Amino acid sequence: MMKIRTRQELDQKQREYLKSLQNQKKQILVCGGTGCVAGGSLKIFAKLNEIMLEKGINCVVKLEKEPEHDSVGIKKSGCHGFCEKGPLLRIEPGGILYTKVKVEDCEEIVEKTIIGNEIVERLVYHDPNGTAYPKQDDIPFYKKQTRIALEHCGKINAESIVEYIAEGGYQAVAKALFDMTPEEIIEEITESSLRGRGGGGFPTGRKWASVLKQTEEEKYVVCNGDEGDPGAFMDRSMMEGDPHKVIEGMIIAGIATKAHHGYIYVRAEYPLAVERLSIAISKATARGLLGKNILNSGFDFDIKISQGAGAFVCGEGSALTTSIEGNRGMPRVKPPRTVEHGLFNKPTVLNNVETFCNVPPIINKGAKWYKQYGPENNHGTKAFALTGNVVNTGLIEVPMGTKLREVIFDIGGGVKDGEFKGVQIGGPSGGCLCISATENHLDLNMDFDSLKKVGAMIGSGGLVVMNDHNCMVEVARFFMQFTQNESCGKCVPCREGTKRMLELLTDITEGRGTLEHISMLEELADTISNTALCGLGKTAASPVVSTLKYFRDEYIAHVVDHKCPAGQCKALVNLVIDPDKCRGCTKCARMCPVNAITGEIKKPHTIDTQKCIKCGTCMDGCKFGAISYE
After folding, report:
1. Three-class SS string for 328-360?
2. Which of 214, 281, 368, 625 is 20 to 30 Å from the Cα of 144, by its Cα?
3. Segments of the chain scoring below 50 in pLDDT
4. Considering the entire predicted model, what is its pTM?
């Protein structure tokens, strides 16, 4: 692989590679993100390749040199985002998107679309009204998105440095090396108002400036790819789908702060991300874009991957750097901060994956361009993992300040299997927002400052939508159990306090709660938040605090009436049979494992609540919908 030794050579290679891409009469991008891979996309990729070879089609899997004009490029891209409809397949030119593709569809795709230039109607997205959307950009899920960090995900070969360079890759590094001083780079990042996308929202430029002014010769740039929030997969998708962009952002941070060594900390549960990052680092080094004397500038920068064991606490800066050093991941008292004494006790820039992915476009296009998105002090875009009771689950990116209503109903397609009740935002450290007679958070702007005002946080970007069948007390208990399990145990407030809170919440959901339990929860939440050592402990009580604030009536119903309004806490509900709906088919009686259901054939049956174990088997088996929780 030929090295790119100068900026002029990089420009030349970009032109050559772009011409190579444009010479392909068709490009087939098979989603190679984790979700679609799990759905069989790699088998689809192999089958398409096999069929085209059988039909004598000039098929290019790996773009290395200029192909002939009649070639068809087939590649594994990163995540397309529309996870609900995977496996996904995009065809260029035209931006055609096929959804829920199966191996048996490959023959028709090749015959009709690749050879015949026709669209396979049944494979394109159809909305609930039956309207077909052949082009990806026209689909409502994509139409209101603005992709900056996710710009290349789903649009280029995730394992190809050639395609990344063709799309302008590493031009921001060249600009930072030859056209800007470290101070000017930091000034541009500061002017853009880029804030850390890992959860805290700390100004990136200010952090980099703090590292630059340190007098130590040895400094580090660390990328946090740990991403431990339940339901979050934004950083994973960026590392899988656009690894070179992560690397480029880290190199620029190194230039800006005069650091020469980088580490990417990735949880071992992300094997595909580790593989794609490893390939990208290897190729960037081989091309001379990483390592010694980058583009003959005299600047050196290398990157290593460190795999974490999946501890949630290692998302905290000092715990993460301690883990990279080979020690148990536990936070330390601050100050000193990571910018002064971080990895190996040296000044360290620590940002998450999404933050670094925003850096190259800011350097290339300028702070003024970036600030056209989002409200004051909250500029740019934010990626979210949209999951839960929503029609269109997936990975999205929208301008900061976008209303929650737009995200759930316009992009997400609305609430599934019920009415909207709330949304858990920001992972275990975030809060639960609701819609009620007094608080309508659907019209809330999704940005750092707006969410902070209502007791929530963006966090890394997990967004779990909940319908009216969700019990908010149980939701709080679930997140408290997660946090308690993930507590490193170093400080007493987090180690013991979360355990006590979990016990109180368990009592409430199992029918042993009293009003005193609620008072104790509030007292413990206040104590833990004010005395815990690290960010995990300080925000551990957020789901409880927010649900008590916005869904207090549910807590009262649990402890006073001993009822679960949502019918989810089994100890507080009874299964009953509606005599008007029951047909007396006896199926429920035959299915009941404890013989709690009695009745005559063709007459309404009844459930003995003393015998009933509330397993729900009868309810699942009743085709008349006569059984429900009361």
Report:
1. CCCCCCCCCCCCCCCHHHCCEEEEEHHHHHHHH
2. 368
3. 436-438
4. 0.91
